[in-house]
């Protein structure tokens, strides 16, 4: 038997010495991204999602991830509509529900479904067989660590239109291999469940995984998305690719951070890539004293100071480097929403949430709105009043000429370019009107 060491596993170029279907036999040498079995939420039996009945056996499956799957399927289907061809690599497929949905709903021409755990094989094959027989060649199931699968595809020059990496913890170790296997113009759907890092509780870890030093901020879940995009942007630029987020989605079930990236090479639409990077890849500075946030570009790093002039020690919290640009592409989201409507996903109970989510994401794509969000509780506590209804606050801010939207991340928060001092004045005014 081949003896595997972690270095061997993480090196893509050892694939020829190992059987593709081999899975590390020695528990001590399990790839670092595989969690201990005790951490795996598994339930035996069958599930239903969007009208599909499928087996889950003892594989990892979470109901709560359905929205993330819906978003991926809509995006893949849009890609297929525009490009007429769709080859999907589902790098960590669990029971194969995503592969099943990419085949059935997005009409993928081919899906390569991989999961390192060979025990998932029977369940995946049985689920995909409900779409077509294995002999028809629309899908193939393999079992290997994701980076090895990706590296082998790269060596074979076997590129994919859509790659889904649904990992546990941080996904940054898969970026490089994945970028090399996505077709130019193709889509990479990545996931992180690393809520500790985004919350600023493990700055050394976020530095190691995403190259970003993250400290606690009031909008840490948005920071999680920005940390993920920033890490991907950085890794892509090392290889000469440029990426831009088409949508970013946070779900508190996990928590889970998911981002769909378009991968390209050459000049991005808005000028030279490095100019684009300098514009959108930098630092975020939050002032504890006044509650305002600002983006700091690399050339302004030496001049960090809050306009409120605070001289309170440690009042400025600086995080980064991370993505400070838009979280979504509004046009792409609008197309997803329209497709959801065509599929009849708008209007029934489960879909109402997706409908609301997509509309909220479109709203928060407004480029005038600063990154981060402000929780109403924070405004109310600084203004020393009770929190007024969110819609009343938003209307009042809007009437004062500022941009304002909800955030898909927090129900009780707004995104606005209205400074905190003005928000406080507006909220105090609303309170007085009520007296
Ligand atoms: C979050 S689950 C996938 C869930 C699935 N995508 C879904 O939507 O239901 C992650 C899966 O990745 C597998 N896995 C973990 N580390 C892996 C690695 N390095 N390479 C390939 N598969 C891996 C696990 O066995 C597990 O089934």
From TrEMBL:
It is an enzyme of class 2 (transferase). Its EC number is 2.1.1.216. It holds the Pfam family TRM. One of its GO terms (cellular component) is nucleus. Gene3D superfamilies: N2,N2-dimethylguanosine tRNA methyltransferase, C-terminal domain, Vaccinia Virus protein VP39. GO terms for biological process: tRNA N2-guanine methylation. It catalyses: guanosine(26) in tRNA + 2 S-adenosyl-L-methionine = N(2)-dimethylguanosine(26) in tRNA + 2 S-adenosyl-L-homocysteine + 2 H(+). CDD domains: AdoMet_MTases. Signal peptide: none annotated. Keywords: Methyltransferase, RNA-binding, S-adenosyl-L-methionine, Transferase, tRNA processing, tRNA-binding. One of its GO terms (molecular function) is tRNA binding. Belongs to the class I-like SAM-binding methyltransferase superfamily. Trm1 family. This is tRNA (guanine(26)-N(2))-dimethyltransferase. The lineage of its organism: Eukaryota, Viridiplantae, Streptophyta, Embryophyta, Tracheophyta.
